[in-house]
Design brief:
By secondary structure, the chain is of the alpha/beta class. It has 3 domains: 4-101 and 173-366 and 435-458, Alpha-Beta Barrel (TIM Barrel), CATH 3.20.20.80; 108-158, Alpha-Beta Complex (Oligo-1,6-glucosidase, domain 2); 470-538, Golgi alpha-mannosidase II (Immunoglobulin-like), CATH 2.60.40.1180. 28% of the residues lie in helices and 19% in strands. The protein has helices spanning 4-7, 29-34, 36-42, 77-89, 108-113, 173-188, 226-238, 256-263, 295-308, 324-327, 335-348, 377-388, 393-403, 440-444, 450-462, 465-469, and strands spanning 10-13, 46-49, 53-54, 66-70, 93-98, 126-127, 147-150, 155-158, 193-196, 246-250, 272-274, 283-284, 286-290, 312-315, 351-356, 471-477, 481-488, 491-498, 504-505, 511-515, 525-526, 531-538. Strands 11-10-9-5-2-1-15-14 form an 8-stranded parallel sheet. The chain has a 5-stranded antiparallel sheet with strand order 16-17-18-22-20. The chain is globular. The structure holds 6-O-alpha-D-glucopyranosyl-D-fructose (ISL) and calcium ion.
Length: 540
């Protein structure tokens, strides 16, 4: 089987915010089908679909109540089948989100497990309390306790995310059998793989008290444990290896060594992983404490992962992260240039590039002014916790405005019409007012737009083995410049990226392949946020 997932680029769709076709203000599957031609035109080869399964929506679909059904707000199973088919007609493969660390508390398994005598009791992690409190001192990802007391059972259940997301118990082999069944169900339908949600934390090797930490007390007992590796190997052997598909893992708090182990071919676990270290370079310990963006720290980290792993899942945005142009570029004066520079980086690093919806038109962070405009459960939990700690309202809002996941979740900006063309109804989350300036329609036919640049870069990568398969060599990573080379069979390309608002010098001989400024040759001086790729020819 060929490694087609190394050759194609992935486009992530967050269905709720993509395109609404029935006026309920929520994006849906028919909305995705309606835009497949635009994605094809962009050069997309794989779609990663954030969850569309049946879900009460406590965490926008990352709380699944039925893995074999579609949430009615997104459509029907017939719509889903049509999407797989329509995408297939355009040679676009579909990857589903596999959320198996937890289910929704509304899942039939969990509802039944609340009864101590139920055969499903052991599907989850139930424990009696200790000294009048929860079973241990762990804390959750979403700024809450991670044990919830259930009156009906008289015991607590573990939830590393929201309390509506109880963790599954992987000490019970039946749970893994269920997961295998779910994976086969979707692979049979013709999907091409999975993006595995928080996959490196699914196995908990102990439930004892953890070392006290500012965030995630207890995490030493669940991050990348041997039990998780065993599960992944079993899923590969029994399911994934039977299909022409791939698996990308979302892996939190991974080190390069853990990443290597998870992607080690001889162990056969995952094909690639999303790591987070580069996304953490503009924060202190947790994302709510932002520090100033420092390009040197950022690109050094990217280079470190390029060097450590044979193949990376490269990304600058997803549905959990603020928008890249607002965060790593300049959303004002150099909006288009910096968005194109970031695109150049994404498309010229070694690995599979992931583009998040809206990134290709340079969508920016939201322009909200208060908490009422926010929907995300994580933001609301953090606000509550910070309030308890007597952090003043203006400071809480400052934290949340910068880091809220809703920054990336504002609806797609399709055109200058009502609601940016996202819906004819009331959008579930407010649209950014800048849609009259930043939208798909305006950029589709403008050869100089951010989207046109994405299209050019995607096409360039698709037809170029040096960019797809060449090795990565770091030349320099500073607060102004990121310079690296890609080499295949002696052919060398040098990529020079400026993160500076000033002109910078970086001499290099060779033929200019492209720039995000209009120029025919490269004279060694970069304009603000300029990106150039120089073909240095064959190694002598
Ligand atoms: O969100 C993060 C950083 O901003 C990370 O802590 C991490 O990516 C995240 O909490 C794990 O994310 C995944 O699982 C969650 C879900 O809410 C996210 O949307 C999903 O991407 C629970 O399923
Ligand atoms: Ca809808």
């Amino acid at each position: 089987m060929s490694n087609w997932w190394k050759e194609r680029i992935v486009y992530q769709i967050y269905p709720r915010s993509f395109a609404d076709t029935n006026g309920d203000g929520i994006g849906d599957i028919p909305g995705i089908i309606a835009h497949l031609d635009e994605l094809k035109d962009l050069g997309v080869g794989i779609i990663w679909l954030s969850p569309v399964y049946r879900s009460p929506g406590a965490d926008n679909g990352y709380d699944i109540s039925d893995y074999r059904d579609i949430a009615p707000e997104f459509g029907t199973m017939a719509d889903m089948d049509a999407l797989i088919q329509e995408a297939g007609k355009r040679d676009i493969k579909l990857v589903m989100d596999l959320v198996i660390n937890h289910t929704s508390d509304q899942h039939a398994w969990f509802q039944s497990s609340r009864d101590k005598n139920s055969p499903y009791r052991d599907y989850y992690i139930w424990r009696p309390g200790k000294n009048g409190g929860p079973p241990n001192n762990w804390t959750s990802f979403f700024a809450e306790d991670c044990w919830e007391y259930d009156k009906k059972s008289g015991e607590y259940y573990l939830h590393l995310f929201a309390k509506e997301q109880p963790d599954l118990n992987y000490d019970n082999p039946q749970v893994l059998d269920e997961i295998k069944g779910i994976m086969r169900f979707w692979l049979h339908k013709g999907i091409a793989g999975f993006r595995c949600d928080v996959i490196n934390i699914i196995y908990k090797s102990s439930l004892e008290d953890g070392k006290k930490r500012l965030a995630l007390t207890g995490s030493e007992y669940y991050i990348s444990q041997p039990g998780t590796h065993k599960i992944l190997q079993e899923l590969r052997r029994d399911v994934l290896s039977q299909y022409d598909c791939f698996a990308v893992g979302e892996t939190v708090f991974v080190t390069p060594q853990m990443g290597k182990d998870l992607c080690d071919k001889s162990r056969g676990e995952l094909d690639m992983i999303f790591s987070f270290e580069h996304m953490e370079t503009d924060q202190y310990i947790v994302k709510w404490f932002k520090r100033r963006f420092h390009a040197g720290r950022f690109v050094k980290t990217i280079a470190k992962w390029q060097q450590a792993l044979e193949w990376n899942a490269n990304y600058l945005e997803n549905h959990d992260q603020p928008r890249s142009v607002s965060r790593f570029g300049d959303a004002d004066k150099y909006w288009a240039h910096s968005a194109k520079m970031l695109c150049t980086m994404l498309m010229t690093l070694r690995g599979t590039p992931y583009v998040y919806q809206g990134q290709e038109i340079g969508m920016t962070n939201f322009d909200y002014t208060n908490m009422e405009q926010i929907q995300d459960v994580e933001s609301h939990n953090v606000n509550k916790l910070a309030k308890k700690l007597h952090i003043p309202a203006f400071y809480r809002w400052r934290m949340i405005k910068k880091s809220s996941r809703d920054n990336a979740r504002t609806p797609m900006q399709w055109h200058t019409g009502k609601n940016a063309g996202f819906t004819t109804g009331k959008p579930w989350l407010a649209i950014n007012h800048n849609y009259t300036r930043i939208n798909m329609a305006a950029q589709m036919n403008d050869p100089d737009s951010v989207r046109s640049f994405y299209k050019t870069m995607i096409a360039l990568r698709a037809g170029n083995d040096v960019l797809k398969l060449g090795s990565f060599r770091l030349i320099s990573a500073t607060r102004r410049l990121f310079i690296y080379e890609r080499e295949l069979d002696g052919r060398i390309y040098r990529v020079i990226l400026s993160f500076s608002k000033k002109a910078c010098k970086a001499p290099c001989d060779g033929i200019l392949l492209l720039s995000n400024y209009p120029r025919d040759t490269y004279d060694g001086t970069l304009s603000p946020y300029e990106a150039v790729v120089v073909d240095k020819g064959d190694r002598q």
